[in-house]
Structures are given as C-alpha cells and as structure tokens.
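Encode chain A's predicted structure.
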Amino acid sequence: MKKVLSTGAIVLLALVMIPAAASAKDKTGAFGIGYDTSLGGVGGISARYAVAKSFGIQAILGFDTVSYNNTESGAAEASFDATQVRAAIRGDIGLAFTKKTNLNLLVGIDVYNQSYEAGLGDNKNDDSATSFAFEIGLGAAYFFTDWFSVNGEVGLAFATVSKTQDIGNLSGIGGGGGFAGGGTDGTDAEGYELAFGRGDTFGSFGWTFWFN
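Encoded structure for chain A:
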C-alpha cells in the first residue's frame, strides 16, 4: 500500500512540474469568486483577480457571531454579544504551469478582529482586540474547465499575540480562538504563534468559479 501511495505522489509531482508554457492556464484579467481557507485559518467567501499570467490577488472574508439573553424569572437579565471578523489579503506568484495545473508561491496577511459586550442588566463590560498573521506557502490550482478550478495549499503561518483572546487564533493550542472560545477578560499579552506545515486533510481546499 505504501508503495502505491509513493508512486502516486511521484506521478502527481511530475504532472505538476512538467513545463508546458505554451499551453499554460492563463487567466489574465479574469475575476473569480468561491470559497477558500488561508494558511492562517481564515475561511469564507473568496474573491480573486488575475492581474497577469504569473500574478494574482485574493481576498477572503468570514465571521462568527454569538448573541443571547438570559431572561430567567427572578434574576437580572444577563446578555452576551460577541463577534469575530476574519479577513485575508493574499498574492500568488506563478512558479510552474501545465495545461490544467498552476503551481504558485503564496504570500499574505490575515486580520482577526474580535469584540464583545457582556454583563448583568445595565452593568456591562465590553472589549475588542485586533491581531494579525503572516503566511507563506505553496499552492496548486487545477482547472477542470476554463470556468472552474479547485486549489490546495500548504505552508507556514506566523501570528502576533497582544491579548489573551488572540491565543488559539492560529494554532488552537490552549483552547483559545478568541471570544467565541471563552476568552473575554481582555488581559494584555505579548507573544506569537507559529504553525508550520499548515494545511488540512485536503490541503486547505478551495474552489473558484471564473467569470472570464
């Protein structure tokens, strides 16, 4: 079984690396929309624009929100409202091309903004925090047709930590992940998170529908 998997991996790598510039997938001037996940964990709607054959830009946007009120009789009304907005801006540089596959170098920045308001009755506390992650990796895009492609990627992501809410945005270590993970004390912190080899089972799978 291992021999079969190794052979398959070698064949796949060969298909990606075979030079075929004359038939390379060129999407210059094309706009695409779909779904993707960055190496920093930003998943959501994705918009792409191919500036040139060997360079494109991408934006990804996603968010989570939690809101509830406890109106149990005889107790002061408790409320909790929290939102985490995640965004990524990335560029991809073409390294190699085949007829249907592009191999790209990916570089980008992710932004995580978290805010919350919680308390009893009129006695409420609120806080917000913004943190960043930087990423670099390799990605491959396969074009089933001129209008539809799937992509996967793997690489490294580095995130800053300025408050305890930031812990877990990138690595998930410590059970963090922002206010939605339960961290609402707003405690200042200083540090970083580093994730190498980031890429889920499907290599941060994404897809794009192209309009040109």
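The radius of gyration is 21 Å.
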